Write the structure tokens for this entry.
Amino acid sequence: MKKDYKKWHNKKTYLNNDKKRVFFHEREIWFAYVGENIGYEQDGSSKDFMRPIIILKKFNNQILWGLPLTKGPKKEKPYYYSFVFKSGIKSVAILSQIKLIDAKRLRYKTGDIKEDEFDTLKEKIRRLLA
């Protein structure tokens, strides 16, 4: 499928110039404008290029590390972490695609990952980076 970078560029221009930053915390799950990306980088879906992400690390009120989520079945390998946060729906964090994100990309909060699961997720990230 051919990607529409022009449409994404228009959306990104709006986000940069006009969108206000929202207040967020670590462990929260937000829908974020992640965009139309290159190759195997995780894209946003829908007309707004959004995808759910976990707020892994808050550096300040402007930037964070986010992990994109998918519902697709993935094997429990070092690059994925599966968990359930809403009505039995399995979500998978794609650890290899950690991304620095400006808070202007955040659209709306959809939930939180449980503390114990968040601790396990952070430990998997540590092992991945070691």
About this structure: The chain has a mean pLDDT of 85.
